[in-house]
Write a structure and sequence with these properties.
The protein is an alpha/beta fold. It contains 9 helices and 12 strands. The protein folds into 2 domains: 7-94 and 282-299, NAD(P)-binding Rossmann-like Domain (Rossmann fold, 3-Layer(aba) Sandwich); 96-274, NAD(P)-binding Rossmann-like Domain (Rossmann fold). The longest helix has 17 residues, at 96-112.
């Protein structure tokens, strides 16, 4: 392989780069694959594949043509004050939507069937069947954020027989899903929902969106599942809402700071389920199908799929 240009650079400390390197060099032999932090010929980097790069990492690649984000969220990347003014392309699904739907279904069934109570019973060697199970037909699930992933989650939950509502900042329509939008629709959406599932993008408008005022509009026997971003939730307000019995419980996969601090009270709260940001894991081969296809579009002078609108933040 030539030692010259061009280069596809990679940065994702949690990923094994071998899978990405092998596939890119097999499918795109005109490119070299290098780790961005080790690139010496910076002028040769044409495309960057990244997840949570440190601020400033990308600013010295003068011939960068596009940045590919190895996930659906771009909020962390957009906070980099030195981010080059080139197209940013996010993954449109890459197998994450189905995984996230399964995560939500697990949470919804756990809450609806009171499995957390049975766990307590087991811990105390207590045998007691619960009879106050709310029928699926009345156990309403609400999805906040009706983009590509949110729409899949809503449809898969609906197929199980749960009534599903949707909320988004602007009007959206999904077959079989009753939708609300804007602040005017939010109160009604929250008041009718037993499990609120957050899948919103993190923007300046949605940061700290799930707060004390938000919880005050939920019903006291409702639950929160957060698989959006940690920045959506004020964790202190959630703990207060749980302790004040404004809501019944929460299942959290994302946090303001990750990994979650060992000192966080969320770990020990009896009404909180903590998982380590695993609701939707990027599947490398599916992601590479998208990325390689988009690189070919860019090389041909076409617009890639999943292009991020910097003003909207997603």
């Amino acid at each position: 392989m030539s030692s010259g240009c061009p280069i596809i650079g990679f940065y994702s400390p949690s990923e094994d780069e071998t899978i990405w390197k092998t596939r890119i060099e097999d499918d795109s032999p005109d490119f070299r694959f290098e780790l961005l932090e080790h690139v010496e010929q910076k002028q040769c980097v044409k495309y960057a594949l990244v997840w949570s790069p440190p601020n400033g990492l990308l600013q010295n690649f003068e011939n960068l043509k596009a940045i590919f984000v190895l996930g659906a969220g771009v909020d962390a990347l957009l906070r980099d004050p030195h981010l080059p003014q080139v197209p940013i392309v996010r993954l449109e699904d890459a197998g994450m939507a189905t995984q996230m739907a399964h995560y939500v279904i697990y949470g919804v069934l756990r809450f609806q069937r009171h499995f957390e109570t049975y766990q307590d019973f087991q811990n105390n060697r207590h045998w007691e069947p619960l009879t106050n199970i709310e029928p699926i037909e009345r156990f309403v699930v609400g999805i906040m954020g009706l983009g590509a992933i949110g729409a899949v989650v809503a449809k898969q939950v609906s197929r199980l027989g749960f009534p599903v509502l949707g909320w988004s900042a602007s009007p959206k329509e999904i077959d079989g899903i009753r939708t609300f939008h804007g602040d005017g629709g939010l109160s009604r959406f929250l008041s009718e929902t037993k499990v609120v599932v957050n899948l919103l993008p993190l923007t300046t408008a949605t940061e700290k969106f799930i707060n004390k005022n938000f919880f005050s509009r939920m019903s006291t026997n409702s639950f929160l599942i957060n698989i959006g971003r940690g920045g959506h939730l004020i964790e202190y307000d959630l703990l207060q809402a749980l302790d004040d019995k404004l809501i019944a419980g929460a299942m959290l996969d994302v946090f303001e700071r990750e990994p979650l601090s060992m000192e966080s009270p969320l770990w020990d709260h009896p009404k909180v389920i903590v998982t380590p940001h695993i609701s939707g894991i990027t599947l490398p081969q599916v992601a590479l199908d998208q990325i390689i296809g988009n690189i070919r579009l860019l090389e041909a002078g076409s617009v890639p799929l999943g292009l991020v609108d910097r003003k909207k933040g997603y």
